[in-house]
Amino acid sequence: MKRFQCKICGFIYDESIGDPEHAIKAGTRWEYLPENWTCPECGVSKTDFEMVEIGVMDNPVIIVGSGLAGYAVARELRKLDTELPIIMLSADHGGFYSKPMLSNALSGGKTPESILNGDAAQMASQLKISIRPHCRVVAIDQSRNSVTLVDGEKIFYDQLVLALGADQVRLPLQGDGVAKILTVNDLDDYQSFRDALIGKKRISIIGAGLIGCEFANDLAATGYQVDVIDINARPLGRLLPPAGGAFIQQKLEAAGVVFHLNATTQSVDQVKEHLCLTLTSGETIESDIVFSAVGLRPRTQLAEAAGIQVNRGIVVNRLLQTQFTNIYALGDCAEVESKVLPFVMPITHAARALAATLAGNPTSVCYPAMPVMVKTPSCPTVVSPPDFSVNGEWHIEADKDGVKALYQDEAGILLGYALLGAATKEKNNLTAQLPPVLM
Ligand SMILES: Cc1cc2nc3c(=O)[nH]c(=O)nc-3n(C[C@H](O)[C@H](O)[C@H](O)COP(=O)(O)OP(=O)(O)OC[C@H]3O[C@@H](n4cnc5c(N)ncnc54)[C@H](O)[C@@H]3O)c2cc1C
Q: Is residue 437 part of a domain?
């Protein structure tokens, strides 16, 4: 961020502050000031007088996190500014890969190596940024613009981007087998999961949401015996109306998956070589591996400890900005205007807007309708759930080939949909009719 001084009256334009009284947002670079902007003190026009650069803060943009969100911002920012110093700090290996691939990688025989698109060194050279893998940030000092690493090193930033992701939720279960429950939330987890599967046959999945159903389909297609346990009456209970849930359940059952619905897992115990799940109904399920997919919790602790406002996620405005003007958040860790959307498409839109803001052109994020494809090849499914704040009803057409469920208001306006099987071919047509998620 730079500062410029009016040669006529001495007024300082500070890019990090902007000129809020005249609707120039904090972070607006000098070159993005409108040509009709005038000096707030003496009224001299931008073109009529020279501003003198009196100070340059040459600290980098620091991006914490090397997931899809961290990389999307780095890539978009590089398109806009080839010189800006960017440092990416990551608690993990720092390489780039597509996380959604993890839930249908087994049946395709994909190894972690084949999923990785580029390691940290390759990505650093490609994007001309500095990447520090295995480098956990343990504190943020927003008053000094610095982050502290686990070894005590401090790094100063000009602008800080938090792309910290989310943790898999762990249920408070009883039993001496609980520590053996696996989750897959990143590439290292996928490696551990693959290793654990060697020589095993029976897998129990706790949670029949998006990730649980995708893994169930993938494991069944790879030849494993799969039990899925969920508290809801149908799989994908939070995303689909009952007819949609029933359809996908039937297709996954045909693929070999056994569902235990309206069921709550109480304990997981080690019984000789195996794990035994006990449900609150008293039913028991013998497994070689227990896998949990019961939801995500945004990583907010680092921000909260630094006094950054958090709610369900790290609270940001439409500029992806926390209450501190040079600290931003996006991706699974962020809550944008009360919405926590842990999917890829919101990241793509947020990263473009944030990159423009970081490059000096404050830009609000807009989300169009963003349908989510459920990667269950046994039952192609795409869903655009209605916003929780809208009122409407499901209108359902179902036959043996598919389900078309439209969520409409009283006037017949389409607010959401769920398409399964043959009905998925209507995705593009229906998506075009949906309202944007954030205008
Ligand atoms: C199995 C699976 C399948 C999915 N399938 C789909 C799909 O089909 N479609 C879809 O839209 N979405 C899907 N998603 C969701 C999507 O993958 C995520 O929304 C997205 O990858 C999140 O990216 P992120 O960068 O926000 O978080 P993450 O990928 O979790 O990255 C967070 C990064 O922050 C780092 N980090 C955290 N804390 C610190 C710290 N203190 N210091 C330094 N670094 C830190 C981590 O090491 C990591 O590099 C899926 C998710 C999973 C788990």
A: no
Tell me which residue range forms the domain holding 22. 2-56
Choosing from 99, 214, 302 the residue with most ligand 1 atoms within 8 A of its CB, the one to mutate for a pocket test is 99
Residue 323 lies in a domain: yes
Q: Which is it for the CA torsion 95, 99, 101, 107, positive or negative? A: positive
Q: State the CATH number of the domain containing residue 20.
A: 2.20.28.10
Q: Please give the radius of gyration of the chain, using alpha carbons only, rounded to the nearest integer.
A: 25
| Confidence (pLDDT) at 1 | 66
Quick check: 146 and 154 in contact, CB under 8 A?
yes
Total domains, the chain: 4
Tokens of 281: 């109904």
Q: Model-level pTM greater than 0.85?
A: yes
Q: Are residues 187 and 264 both part of a single domain? A: yes
The pair of structure tokens assigned to 382 is 């795409």
65 CA: nearest ligand 1 atom: 34
Phi, psi of 217 (to 5 degrees): -65, -45
Q: Are residues 66 and 124 in the same domain?
A: yes
Query: Of the residues 344, 348, 349, which should be mutated to test ligand 1's pocket, given the most ligand atoms within 8 Å of the CB?
Result: 344
CB of 396 closer than 6 A to ligand 1? no
Nearest CA to ligand 1 atom 10: 343
Does the beta carbon of 372 lie inside 6 Å of ligand 1?
yes
The model's pLDDT over 274-286, given as tens digits with 9 standing for 90+, comes to 999 999 999 999 9
Query: Per the domain annotation, does 87 fall within a domain?
Result: yes
